[in-house]
Amino acid sequence: MRRAFVLLLGALWTLPNSLIGLAGGLVGMAAGARPQWRAGDHALVFQHWPWGPGGAITFGNVILHTGASLDTACSTYSHRAGLCVDPSIRLADHERAHVFQYMVLGPLFLPLYLLCGGVSVRNRFERAADRYALTGRGWWPWPRP
Are 33 and 48 spatial neighbours (Cβ–Cβ below 8 Å)? Predict the structure, then answer.
């Protein structure tokens, strides 16, 4: 019961971000995107989202995904940058970490994410999402020392 309440509070706190994702998803539906609620990821996922370079982007509790399923393997940001040889991760796990980050930071997420470098290996949010996808722990972008 307590967990459900905390998740509800997080969803309400990040609602402005989720509305951005929902707007993008609804526009994408006109071009073939299909919505699917994924309870385990705490997100509404729009599959086959028709724009972007590929992969997925999260806005609050909404994930816009260009592929057919989030349950696909992908490389970590560090691996793609040639900094390490990580095993593949599940895209769903990486995006779920972003959902958690949004639920804690709410409207502060996007400005902080951009200040930390945007979509890049230097961004602590992306490194934390990769860490979570690799280990199931550590989605918070400022780990304890």
Answer: yes
What's the pTM?
0.94
Q: What angle do CA 133, 40, 94 make, to 5 degrees?
A: 20
The Cβ of residue 118 has, within 10 Å, a number of other Cβ atoms equal to 11
Q: Which residues of 64-73 are buried (b: 16+ CB within 10 A; e: fewer)?
A: bbbeeebeee
Sign of CA dihedral 15, 69, 54, 104: positive
Sign of the alpha-carbon torsion through 49, 64, 89, 77: positive
CA nearest 28: which of 8, 57, 5? 57
% the chain with pLDDT above 70: 99
Tokens for 44, please give them. 């509404």
Instruction: Find the angle CA(129)-CA(135)-CA(137) to the nearest 5 degrees.
Output: 65
CB 44 within 8 Å of CB 61 = yes
